[in-house]
Amino acid sequence: MLLKNRICILFLHYLNDDITIKHYELLKKYNPNKNIYPIGFEHHNLIDGSHVVCKKESYPKNDILNKTCKREYWSEADLLIYDFYLNYPNLPVYFVVEWDTYCNCSLENFYGNALNMNNFSHIIHKKESLKTWNWYKKLTKNQKLIPNIGGMTPTSGILFTKSVLSSMVNLMINNPRQYDNMFSELRLGTLLQQSGYTLNKPFLNSESYINWNIDSITFDPSKPGYYHPIKTIV
Fold first, then answer.
1. Most exposed: 120, 165, 173, 184, by fewest CB within 10 Å?
2. How far apart are CA 110 and CA 232, in angstroms?
3. Measured on CA atoms in the order 171, 85, 205, 230, is the torsion positive or negative?
4. What is the model's pTM?
């Protein structure tokens, strides 16, 4: 694999529809010097040439959680990241973007020096904010005893260096059943903290650009940025 840049972009998606293609093309337009990999689960209509992920016994399962979750691919989106890493374990930096993320500039133009961090996500859940988080409330009493539980959300605009993601995936592979029926963003944050790293945000008001709630972002396509969730063509 010929690398164009130390930062590789993972584009998570589940449909090959107009909005997905538009955001994928924008990502390529503004980041021409980076390898961009479309990724999705099998049995979905994916972009041609995508890295296709099959669920495995060696991965965590969300069978119980998925009974109350509207979108299965959403609750297990982290498996796309782990599987891609296991197939491409030697990339320097992994930057993850979801299909409903609009961009109008390069990663460097928006994130600047934050791209040198070992990890970041736009919203983080440490011990103090966990108890009010819906996905934490869905854990069983025994699950809440798991050490170093944390969250990084949403699964877009998140970054891992190779060393961070390697540690996380090794923990997951060595004991996948411990992480069964945990929402993807809760599993990501927990594995990261269990690996000895600290949850970080790229900058102070990062949640106003990428968030799980569209009402919590300040969307202004005239200003350079990465915005999520944007589910219509701009």
1. 173
2. 22
3. negative
4. 0.96
